[in-house]
Automatic annotation (TrEMBL):
Binds 1 Fe(2+) ion per subunit. This is Alkylated DNA repair protein (DNA oxidative demethylase). It comes from Camelimonas lactis. Residues 116-216 form the Fe2OG dioxygenase domain. 2-oxoglutarate binds at N123, R124, Y125, R207, Y208, N209, L210, T211, F212, R213. PANTHER family: ALKYLATED DNA REPAIR PROTEIN ALKB-RELATED (PTHR16557), NUCLEIC ACID DIOXYGENASE ALKBH1 (PTHR16557:SF2). The keyword Nucleotide-binding does not apply. InterPro entries: Alkb, AlkB-like, AlkB-like_sf, Oxoglu/Fe-dep_dioxygenase_dom. One of its GO terms (molecular function) is methyltransferase activity.
Length: 216
């Protein structure tokens, strides 16, 4: 056993394969945790978190906002990307530099060297909030990966397959973890189980997730 194994035994491997084209980079966002959280606060000051409604009329338990050239929205008319925040009519706040840099570098490490996200959806989970099994399929071009950053309280992430009925594997996503997925698993079903109570030194009782997409 060498030093690398010893470090791995204590903290888990830095890189875990989740499936074809899907990689979990443990702790990849830790070095920029404070700048990322400051970026979330700056975006939310302009485009506040809100609980949107699904086309079926249900209010989502996850609160959301967006930044970048386009934001993801849902209402009675459906799921889509919009260049302006429907709450204000103004363009979504620009994507903070530190967001774009982390997304690009993480994608490159996972084998997608030219990823330039134009949209970042920010999810905020309070205890009890969940996201049921879904596909991310509102983007224009599925050859581009999605980069997902977890901050604050840990969650249980379910990662399935191409069909809703495929078996799911569970991963604990912790503060600072980054998931990059593209290629064959780009359209795989995934979701987040009900968030458990907890206390995180930087986010209190909340979990944040940033998902970077090429939407337009
Ligand atoms: C979340 N994430 O982690 C929800 N989608 O809160 C997602 O729905 C997601 O993490 C596509 C790719 C990565 C993700
Ligand atoms: Fe998703």
């Amino acid at each position: 056993m060498d030093l690398f194994d010893l470090a791995g035994a204590a903290s888990g491997p830095a890189r875990e394969d989740m499936g074809p084209g899907a990689v979990l980079l443990r702790g990849r966002a830790l070095a920029s945790e404070r700048e990322l959280l400051a970026g979330i606060a700056a975006v939310a000051a302009e485009a506040p978190f809100r609980h949107m409604r699904t086309p079926g009329g249900f209010e989502m338990s996850v609160a959301m906002t967006s930044c970048g050239e386009a934001g993801w929205v849902t209402d009675r008319r459906g799921y889509r990307y919009e260049r302006c925040d429907p709450a204000s009519g103004a363009p979504w706040p620009p994507m903070p530099e530190v967001f774009a840099a982390l997304a690009q570098a993480s994608a490159a490490e996972a084998g997608f060297p030219d990823f330039a996200p134009d949209a970042c959806l920010i999810n905020r989970y309070a205890p009890g909030a969940r996201m049921s099994l879904h596909q991310d399929k509102d983007e224009q071009d599925f050859s581009r990966p999605i980069v997902s950053v977890s901050l604050g309280l840990p969650c249980t992430f379910q990662f399935g397959g191409a069909a809703r009925s495929d078996p799911v594997r569970k991963y604990e996503l912790r503060h600072g973890d980054v998931v990059v997925w593209g290629g064959p698993s780009r359209l795989y079903y995934h979701g987040v189980l009900r968030l458990k109570d907890g206390e995180h030194p930087l986010t209190g009782g909340l979990r944040y997730n940033l998902t970077f997409r090429g939407a337009l």
